[in-house]
Write a structure and sequence with these properties.
Length: about 300
């Protein structure tokens, strides 16, 4: 190779490489591409892979085709019952028509996605204010909020296509947080606390009343149980005394002398169970006749007084 021509060949190779680099571009799976010629869109590329464009004349703008989540700036909203709320929401959207999307949201000072987010945020906040203003605060913080947000999503899509197509579709608008303004939180908290204390006082009074009623019923039931038990015990004691008397009478009728002797021994046991000294005249007392002579023991004696039960 001629050394004098080497710089020329090198320059040609560099030019060819630059030409190929300018003519080829790739489209990712998550993107769509807008082809611009002299700054004006002339078409779009939806298929991922390697593509060709006219070098130095055409340029390519990639558009994200994935689902995009955008946090809308928190805004103060008045409900139908004149309650002031600070609502923090988000919107999920995606590009539906890349070419229309580029034509609608291309801007000079920001990227196309950021410009779309800015305009979408304004529309979402406006629709939130309009729709939430038709409902009371209780509906917004309850389970009914789902249907309200569906209405906001539909109205946002209608607003985007009211004048011209936007090339995007809003999938969902949801409220992340709905709070009262700081200046109203203390007043609401104090009112809620007073209501809860009033409710607690009511529950305590009802509990004391029910407790007193239960204690009274319990005391009455205890008294009835004790009375029934005492009545049953008296009946049982009466029956036992009757059976004992019958048994004593039967024993006395079979052997009066032995019965008198047995009852005397029982009486002696009760009388002399205390430890101490007792001086008694056996000969002059009929009560102690069984301590006397054999003649006295052979005599028939009446049943001692201790037999009376």
């Amino acid at each position: 190779m001629n050394s004098k021509l080497f710089p020329l060949y090198l320059g040609i190779c560099v030019f060819v490489m630059m030409l190929l680099n300018s003519a080829l571009f790739t489209v990712d799976q998550t993107q769509r591409a807008i082809v611009l010629q002299f700054g004006e869109p002339i078409g779009e590329v939806r298929e991922p892979g390697l593509h060709v464009k006219i070098p130095f004349i055409q340029t390519v703008v990639p558009i994200d085709s994935r689902l995009i989540e955008y946090d809308v700036a928190a805004a103060e909203i008045y409900t139908r019952d004149n309650k002031n709320m600070v609502v923090d929401a988000y919107a999920r959207w995606r590009v539906e028509d890349p070419l229309v999307f580029y034509q609608r949201f291309k801007g000079e000072s920001s990227s196309i996605i950021e410009e779309a987010k800015r305009r979408l945020g304004v529309i979402v906040v406006g629709e939130l204010r309009r729709e939430l203003g038709l409902h009371v605060m209780a509906d917004i913080i309850s389970q009914n909020r789902g249907s309200i947000m569906e209405t906001v999503t539909e109205s946002t899509n209608r607003k985007l296509t009211q004048d011209t197509k936007a090339g995007l579709v809003v999938i969902d608008v949801r409220i992340k947080k709905a709070d009262l303004p700081p200046e109203n939180q203390k007043a609401v908290y104090d009112r809620m606390r007073a209501e809860r204390e009033q409710q607690a006082t009511k529950y305590r009074s009802e509990g004391m009343r029910d407790g007193q009623k239960i204690r009274s019923e319990t005391d009455q039931a205890v008294r009835e149980i004790i009375a029934n038990a005492e009545r049953q015990s008296q009946i049982i004691l009466g029956q036992a005394d009757s059976e004992a008397a019958a048994t004593y009478a039967k024993a006395y009728g079979e052997d009066p002398e032995f019965y008198a002797f047995k009852r005397s021994l029982d009486s002696y046991q009760l009388t002399m169970k205390n430890k101490g000294v007792m001086i008694m005249d056996v000969s002059s007392s009929d009560y102690l006749r069984y301590f006397g002579s054999a003649v006295a023991r052979d005599q028939k004696a009446p049943v001692p007084a201790a037999d009376i039960n």
